[in-house]
Design brief:
312 residues; alpha/beta; 7 strands; globular
Amino acid sequence: MALKIALPLPALPKFDPVTLAQTRARLVAWWDGGDPPDLEAIKAEIEAQNEPGKLSAKHKKLYVTASHIMWGPDRNFPSSLDLTTQLGTAVGAKKDAAMACIGAGSGFITRTLLEQFGVKLTAYESDPTIRALAAKAVKKSKSRKNYSAKPYNGQLSGLAERQVELAILLFQGGDAERAERGAFSMLRLLKPGGQAIWFDLFSTEGEASADLAKGIENRAFTPVEVFKGAAQAAGLTVVSEAECNLNFLAAISSSWSLIGKDFDKRQAALIKAGGQEAASLALHSIITWKARAAAVRAGQLSARYIVVSAPA
């Protein structure tokens, strides 16, 4: 049975126990091996109100909020202590090192880097909702004095020049243009000899065509060689790279397990936050990341990091 939620649903109150029960029953059936919700129908209904591959300001804010509710606490996409620690260790994170991060999300990764490694971290984030959620999460940390956040519009001019020893870019890839932007962002951020790590999902052969994995942003997946070529063109040196499939899949599995344990609470929060629009956007986020996990298991995508160094 496919789950189809109309966007918007006329005259629906923000908390509708009947719809909540129906949604829960269908998701539980899915967990038990039934048919998944119809992502294409949900995506089509969302995109009918927005530009293709681009959300309106209202839906973007609601998508971030809904994803944060479902994947949380303090996450707007699935992550884990093990995966974040693996990336921090690979890039050489250490106490009092100045680090910049682009794409850290709504708090969990930031807190982990601060608390596990003791870095002094500046987070660059374009989305004001994510910045606010991350700031709220970091307030709970004893390391909060080592954190700052800056708006980021995707342009190199928005990044402090040669101010950090280390940098982390998370899920910033896609096509060759985005790879080039990421490589030059690293070059601008790093002090001479500094190191940066790029973590993303890469296609294993050609450009991946796993439609469900592209998500609401309609992102592309290219081979790791595309980023490595962009890094070398920017004057960066590739230091190391490694596959992170196990930790990536474990992060999704553990987050998925937590959703199942307190689904009623999360679903009620979604309805309160934005009615059925929020519920539909949360479902889209869930199915997107599960599709990405399936593509990794099938060998279509690979979760990898690449460490690069700036010229001395």
